[in-house]
Amino acid sequence: MTKTTEEIIMDAAIKVFTRGGYAAARTSDIAREAGINRALLHYYFRDKQTIFNLIFEGRFKEFFGGLFKVMQSEDSLEEKIRKIINHEIGTLILHPDLPRFIAIEVASRPELLVEYGTKLGLNPRMLIARFEELTRAEIAKGNIRDIDPKQLLINIMSLSIYPFVAQPIIRVMMQMDPVMFQQSMERRKQEVFEFVMNAIKKHA
Amino acid sequence: MTKTTEEIIMDAAIKVFTRGGYAAARTSDIAREAGINRALLHYYFRDKQTIFNLIFEGRFKEFFGGLFKVMQSEDSLEEKIRKIINHEIGTLILHPDLPRFIAIEVASRPELLVEYGTKLGLNPRMLIARFEELTRAEIAKGNIRDIDPKQLLINIMSLSIYPFVAQPIIRVMMQMDPVMFQQSMERRKQEVFEFVMNAIKKHA
DNA sequence: CCCCAGTTTAACAAAATTGTTAAACAAAAT
DNA sequence: ATTTTGTTTAACAATTTTGTTAAACTGGGG
Known about the structure:
2 copies of one chain form a homodimer.
Chain A: H1 5-20, H2 27-34, H3 38-44, H4 48-71, H5 77-94, H6 98-108, H7 111-119, H8 124-140, H9 149-165, H10 167-173, H11 178-200
Helix pairs in contact in A: 1-2, 1-4, 1-6, 4-5, 5-9, 5-11, 9-11
Chain A binds a DNA duplex (30 and 30 nucleotides) through helix 3.
């Protein structure tokens, strides 16, 4: 389980790139973070852009890959909602900077989304199709109140992801240290689930 | 109402800085966006950092200033929730890049939050105190279900703000053009309000 | 012991970006 | 009409960041 230098560099690059995006990342930061020097960095990788591409693809997959799998499962709506929330918050506890990183890079070059999406065989229509269908069925059966399935999905994602994007702000506003924040996010899996289920439940 | 060159430059700088943050902004981008040249930019402003500071303070105020006012109003909880949502989504429809910008800069230099917060006389404790008190009172009265007021506030912010942070991603996933997105956000004011109120309502 | 992949050092070249300057020019103000 | 102010151009200096190179060193494998 001892890491190769290549892996050490990649891990460092992930940290530095995800912290502030491509433009803010210095190759010297990556080297320092990896505990090596810049020359060695170029010994293993052509240049900054090459490292970035490798990382972006990996992070992109991490962020969307699992989501796609969960989204296409054959569960009930309730179970699917639970799995989406658990999956999102769970991976983000391990990789808190991920959503900000993706947001920064996709905002500055939106074509990345389509490019890497197709590269990984992810089809946006497929992603939401089953969820939409399932939600409409539950509405038709009268199990939940009438709500736009797309908005519901946006709501679930918002509740799961936003706290990580805004982590530093929330930490100050709510006066939490990093440990408290992480614990809070652990509890949040259940709380967000309840919040959503309550929100879509019918009231007498 | 004709703009001074200074204002034109500032407007351009807002666009460029909020698009990708300080590190990704080129002074030549700002000049091009303003329709002037780099020399003139330095004629009006000392340097890039000076322009950035002015803009960050302004954007920070825009983002948090109004929120603080709303948060301290004397409304009922329900009315306060409605106002928070309307205020957040309303200003973000006008300035969609704002939350990503704040998130990027605060993440790379968290001390900015405290620095500009105190500079503008905004106290985080004050911000949430009234909201927390009010929520607890409603819980005690049995009007809403038992929920952590901080989590509730995070939920409201998440639902209001996240869609703008993730705008490019949502647009692709949900297959919306920019106009559809904006219309969708207009409707969202009401939908988020209903979603939240349902979520905290008690069930039989 | 010697070789060699991996690594460091240090110097440097190349590129990108920022900031400065002087000169010329345009338009408005006096 | 001429000064002043705002603006452009173009060249360039300074700085920062990236990428390259050569030489030396290190430690383990053959």
